[in-house]
Design a protein that fits this description.
alpha/beta; Spore Coat Polysaccharide Biosynthesis Protein SpsA, Chain A; 5-stranded mixed β-barrel; two-stranded antiparallel ribbon; about 30% helix
Length: about 280
C-alpha cells in the first residue's frame, strides 16, 4: 500500500436508506450489491488505493451486517475451502488483512455534519477523508477520486471537496459551491450553499460524497447550528473554513453513480456489468 498523508477514511453509514424500502428494512443500504460486491466495499477499496488503511465507520441501529462483512466468517470459509468458490473471498480477505476497522454509533440522525462529528474519536485528530458509499465513483482511465484528492491535499494542505457539474434544475439536491478557478478544474471556494433552489444557486457545481477534511472542522461542527432541514450540515461548517480561504473544490476525473437513487443504482449495475463482461 502506497504511503499517504491521509490514513483514515470515515464512512457515515447510519442513514435509513428509505428510498430503497422495503429492501433496506433489515439490510443497510451500504450493503446493497453492485454485481457481487456491496457498495461500501467499493468505497473501502477506493480508500485503500489512495493509501488509507484505517476505515472508521459511523453506524446506527440495524447496521451489524457491515461489521460482519469486514470480518472473517470461519464457518463459511471452512465450507468452501478447497473449492472453486474459495477465490471469491480473496478480495474481502485482502481488505481484512490490510485494514483496521473501527466503529461508533450515531444515536440520532441529525445530518451529515453531525455524523462526521460523531466519528471524531475515530480519526486520531488528523486530516481524514470522508466517503459516502452510495456515491459510487469509477475512473476506468486512471486513479480513483480519493487518490486524486490526496495528491491535491499534498499541495494545498486544506479541506477539499469533490464536485461535478449537474443539471441546474437539480441543485436543490446538493451542496453547491462558487469560487475562483485557480487551476483547471480546481477552485478556491468563496461560498457554499446547501440544497439551493435552482433560482438561488450560485453555480451548477455540486459537492458529491468525497471529502478531505482538516481536524479543525470538529471545533466548527460543534458550534454549527442546525441548517437546511433542521440538520447540522457539513456545508455550513466548511463555509467557515472557506471564509479563511481554506477550502478547495475539485472537479474530479471519472464517473459518479448516485446509488442512493434507484435510477443511479440500476445504471451502475448495468454499466459495471457491461464493463466486466468485456474485460
Amino acid at each position: 500500500m502506497k504511503k499517504s498523508p491521509i490514513n483514515v477514511c470515515l464512512f457515515p453509514a447510519a442513514g435509513y436508506g428509505t428510498r430503497f424500502l422495503p429492501a433496506t428494512k433489515a439490510m443497510p443500504k451500504e450493503m446493497l450489491p453492485i454485481l457481487t460486491k456491496p457498495l461500501i466495499q467499493y468505497g473501502v477499496e477506493e480508500a485503500m488505493d489512495a493509501g488509507m488503511n484505517t476505515m472508521a465507520i459511523v453506524t446506527g441501529r440495524g447496521k451489524r451486517a457491515i461489521e460482519d462483512h469486514f470480518d472473517i466468517s470461519y464457518e463459511l470459509e471452512s465450507q468452501i475451502k478447497g473449492t472453486t468458490k474459495e477465490k471469491m473471498l480473496a478480495d474481502i480477505r485482502h481488505i481484512i488483512d490490510k485494514c483496521t476497522f473501527s466503529y461508533t454509533r450515531q444515536i440520532e440522525m441529525r445530518g451529515l455534519g453531525h455524523a462526521i462529528l460523531t466519528g471524531k474519536t475515530l480519526t486520531n485528530f488528523q486530516p481524514f477523508a470522508v466517503l459516502l458509499a452510495d456515491d459510487l465513483c469509477v475512473n476506468n482511465k486512471g486513479v480513483g477520486v480519493l487518490s486524486q484528492m490526496v495528491e491535491l491535499y499534498k499541495k494545498y494542505r486544506c479541506s477539499i471537496v469533490a464536485i461535478e457539474e449537474i443539471d441546474p434544475q437539480h441543485t436543490d439536491k446538493y451542496g453547491v459551491i462558487d469560487g475562483d478557478e485557480i487551476a483547471p478544474g480546481i477552485y478556491r471556494v468563496r461560498t457554499m450553499v446547501e440544497k439551493p433552489a435552482p433560482s438561488d444557486a450560485p453555480t451548477n457545481l455540486a459537492i458529491i460524497g468525497r471529502y478531505i477534511l482538516t481536524p479543525d472542522i470538529f471545533d466548527i461542527l460543534r458550534v454549527t447550528k442546525p441548517g437546511k432541514g433542521g440538520e447540522i450540515q457539513i456545508t455550513d461548517a466548511l463555509m467557515r473554513q472557506a471564509e479563511q480561504g481554506a477550502v478547495i473544490a475539485y472537479k474530479f476525473q471519472g464517473k459518479r453513480y448516485d446509488c442512493g437513487s434507484i435510477d443511479g443504482y440500476v445504471q451502475a449495475t448495468v454499466e459495471l456489468y457491461e464493463a466486466e463482461k468485456y474485460k
